[in-house]
Amino acid sequence: SVISLEKEIQSLRLYLELESLRFDNTFEYLFEIHPELESLNYQVPAMLIQPYVENAIWHGLLHKEGERKLLVSLQLSDEMLQCIIEDNGIGRKRASEIRKLRNKEHESKGMTVTRERLEMMKKSSNKNASVNIEDLIDTFGNPLGTRVQLLIPIQS
């Protein structure tokens, strides 16, 4: 199902506000939204972005010492919504190591379902719906966080 982009953004803001309170405001979050997206009534698939935001918090930021930041950027790109979720957390490799130490071989159902939804959208809309996950590293190979880029078909 689809909802207005405005409602999706409201839901994300509320989710982040609640998670921030839940974790005693131990991380900062920022939204960067292209002005055109806020002024037009675009429709997007519901709850497609939230699982990636949740992963950034739970697996990237909460295990990090010091400053914790999360960016959610929404831009318009060739009739597609480009969503970037970027954190300065511990990175996927370290998060995986922590899961193994805790003997938890948990596979995220949210990520699997979201990938499947993107594949279905790609087939039904003939648009290149996709997700790309990139590990951010410094020049020495140390983790600087994770960047998720979603390309989501939008409807007017």
3D architecture notes:
With 156 residues, the chain is an alpha+beta fold. It is 40% helix and 31% strand. It contains 5 helices and 7 strands; from the N terminus they run E-H-E-H-E-H-E-E-H-H-E-E. The strands form 2 sheets. It has a 5-stranded mixed sheet. Strand 6 and strand 7 form a beta hairpin. It is globular and about 45 Å long. The two termini are 14 Å apart. The model has no long low-confidence stretch (mean pLDDT 87).
Q: Radius of gyration, Cα only, in angstroms?
A: 16 Å
Largest sheet: 5 strands, mixed
The stretches of 5 or more residues where confidence is low (pLDDT under 50) are none
In sequence order, what are the helices and strands, one letter per element? EHEHEHEEHHEE
How many strands?
Answer: 7
Integer average pLDDT? 87
What percentage of amino acids are in beta strands?
Answer: 25-35%
Helix content: 40-55%
N-to-C CA distance: 14 Å
Strand order of the largest sheet: 2-4-5-7-6
Number of helices: 5
Structural class: alpha+beta
Shape type:
globular
